[in-house]
Every structure is written in structure tokens, then in C-alpha cells.
Amino acid sequence: MSAGPPATAVVDIDPAALPTTGAQAAALIRDVIPEPSAFGPGAVPRSPYESDPRRRPVLGDDCVWHQQALPKDVLATLTRSYEIPASGAKGPLRLSAVVTVHRDAEQADWENAEVLEEMMRCPEQRLRSDEVITSLNDVPNSLGDSGNEYADDVLTELGSYTSAEVGGPHEYLWGQTRIGQFTLAVSAKGSKGWSRADLFERLRDPHAGMRTRLTAVIERDTPKPGGSTKGDG
């Protein structure tokens, strides 16, 4: 994880396409964040479908997630929640997508760094009073590492999920991409009958779709190692 300005300085981003106000950032988020159908057959909105745009989750010193007002470095953020209802031998699969727009790329880079710090500080985290994720392990990849040719940073978090409703532990998966001042994240909380491979499969296309829509909006091409450019498809 880089500590200073990210690699975005060497790629093509149209400055005029970047949001500078909360209203512009919120409009961009709605162009980027996926609809339920992006998660495949059977996916439907959960209730509440969208988070309060004035607040965001923060991991406290007690390793419990709390909602707090947006910090000054965030122009806008939005979380959508989805579900694939229980069917046959499979329990319900809970899914989410999050898009956050920071004021600049360095602040978005610090968000990724904080994720790594949170995992080390709290390998067990309580999402709600009846939901907990444990055995967390984060895998970071910067541009050019391990096949990452489409983003400044990519983070994958693996762990186990347990809740009062579905029991557990079950598979848990969270992935985040940083492109300039933007972070795009998806997550899946498993239950009976859902493998880790199933979770990767359900999250892959929605995550890639967000990247594609974002890069189209900001008119960015990501450089391949060696100097040529490649759009993310």
C-alpha cells in the first residue's frame, strides 16, 4: 500500500469529469452503483435498499461497526443492499455494493490503508448485535501486481460470517477497488450451501461493471506495465 500520491498521476483522467461537490459526487455514484440484476438470477433489493447518504460505517475501538456523519474528506458515499433469497438447499445470500467519492486520490488511498489496519486491529468485527465476521485476512494488490491492470489498488478480504438467522460460520467475502479518488466495494455474507467460489462468482461481474462505468465517466485509461494503455472491460 502506497503512503504517498497514487499512480493516477500517470494515467489519463479528464479533470473536468471529476466531481468537486457533494451533489456532483452523489450523481456520479448513481451512475456507477449496480442494480440488483447485476448480481445474477434471483437477486432482489433488501430493506433498507440504500443507506443514509449523510452517514457512513466506521469501525470503533471496540471492533463494532457504527454509523457516523461523513468526514470532511468524503464528498459522497452510498451503500446498496441486496439478497438472493433462500431456495432449495441454499440459505439466503446477503450482498452489498458501496461507492465512495473522496476529495482527492490521496484520501481514498488512506481509506484502503485503514482497511488493512482495521483487519490487523480487529480480526473479529461485529457488524450488528447479531452478526459477526471472524478470521479476517486481507490481500492487497497495487497496480501491476498479481494481474491488477485496471486499478490503483485492489483489496480482497476473506473471513467467516455468523449470524443469529443463518448460524455459521459461513463464507464471507469483501472486495474493494480504488481508482483515483473513488473506491468501489462489494461484499457477500454466505449461509448454508454457498461456497467461497460461489461468492466470488456473484461479486465478479457487479464489481467489474462498477469499474467500467466509472472509468467511462471519468474518461480514464489504465496503463499496462510498460506504458501502453488499456481500458477496463
Short précis:
This protein has 233 residues and is of the alpha+beta class.
Molecular structure report:
It is a single chain. By secondary structure, the chain is α+β, with helices and mostly antiparallel strands. The protein has a domain at 15-88 and 102-125 and 212-218. It has three helices and twelve strands. It has helices at residues 22-32, 105-121, 196-218; strands at residues 44-50, 55-59, 65-69, 74-84, 93-102, 125-128, 131-142, 153-163, 167-179, 182-189, 222-223, 229-230. Strand 4 and strand 5 form a beta hairpin. The two termini are 24 Å apart. The relative contact order is 0.18.
Considering the chains and any ligands shown, give keywords for the structure.
alpha+beta; 12 strands; 233 residues; 3 helices; two-stranded antiparallel ribbon; disordered C terminus
What does the overall shape look like? globular
Query: Which regions have little confidence, pLDDT < 50, spanning 5+ residues?
Result: 1-11, 224-233
The major β-sheet equals: 8 strands, antiparallel
Please tell me how large the radius of gyration is.
17 Å
Number of helices: 3
Q: What is the arithmetic mean of pLDDT?
A: 87
In the sheet with the most strands, the strands line up as 1-4-5-10-9-8-7-6
Number of E strands:
12
Structural class: alpha+beta
